[in-house]
Specification:
Helix content is about 55%, strand content about 15%. By secondary structure, it is an alpha/beta fold. Helix 1 runs parallel beside helix 3 and helix 3 packs across helix 11. The chain starts with a strand and ends with a helix.
Length: about 250
């Protein structure tokens, strides 16, 4: 299992554990969606903390598998990303991100899907770097980023595909709080417990209303994800991914 759930009283810690960089392949994305959907219906779960194992939150989609896979694998990958992001964004209980290290591309999108985002100082970098890697955003991914990044910084974050240190991420809205690196998990749990004290129906109804416009936009734009799949399958995008991987020495 690449996604591990551990209960600490009424807070469920959900950890992406797929060494070395917690990359999101098809199976991992479906495991994450499964855990979130089960947690949504579990009365014993009052809130969730989402993190990554080791020193990386997540490096995003597993581009090695994308390059090795055929067209069917790429299509399945986009569908799995969509399912995981939808399950996260429509999760009506409190969910807090404990950003313990690099959160890049799909990893940053997961962070944006959470209600509160705590990042340790010096923990790493975070960024919606999809375009710098040459790949287009699936509809749900882009809407999660759009929902949380400050409007004045949105095009900078998305179009330039930059990554940010914690202070820069706080400035542009990729995270909510920078804490001492060794306190990331403790403070994330504190924030989750604080939100879990709100009556569940009150929290769920309010969160659903807050996110309803973004959900509607995501569902509407997802009707065009066939174009996104075609782009990921194209020779141009595959060449861009190969250049990105070569630059990383992989």
């Amino acid at each position: 299992m690449a996604v591990v759930a551990e209960d600490r009283d009424d807070v469920r810690l959900v950890t992406i554990d797929r060494p070395p960089v917690n990359a999101l392949d098809v199976d991992t994305l479906h495991e994450l969606a499964d855990v979130l959907e089960v947690s949504a219906g579990d009365d014993g779960v009052g809130a969730v903390v989402l993190t990554g194992a080791g020193k990386v939150m997540s490096a995003g989609a597993d581009l090695i598998k994308v390059l090795a896979g055929d067209d069917d694998y790429i299509d399945a990958g986009i569908d799995a990303l969509t399912r995981a992001f939808r399950s996260l964004f429509t999760f009506l209980k409190p969910i807090v991100a404990a950003v313990n290290g690099h959160a890049l591309a799909g990893g940053a999108v997961l962070v944006c899907g959470c209600d509160h985002r705590v990042m340790g100082a010096g923990a790493g970098r975070i960024g919606a770097i999809e375009l710098s890697a040459g790949v287009p955003f699936p509809a749900w991914a882009l809407q999660l980023v759009r929902h949380r990044v400050h409007s004045g910084n949105l095009e900078e974050v998305v179009l330039f595909g930059r990554s940010y240190d914690p202070e820069g991420a706080l400035r542009c809205g990729l995270i909510d709080e920078v804490v001492n690196e060794g306190e990331t998990m403790e403070i994330a749990f504190d924030r989750a417990r604080e939100l879990a004290q709100i009556p569940r129906s009150s929290f769920a109804l309010t969160k659903r209303s807050l996110r309803a416009p973004a959900v509607a936009d995501a569902e509407s734009l997802a009707a065009h994800d066939d174009e996104i799949k075609a782009a990921w399958r194209s020779a141009e995008v595959r060449a861009a991914i190969e250049r990105q991987m070569a630059a990383l020495g992989r």
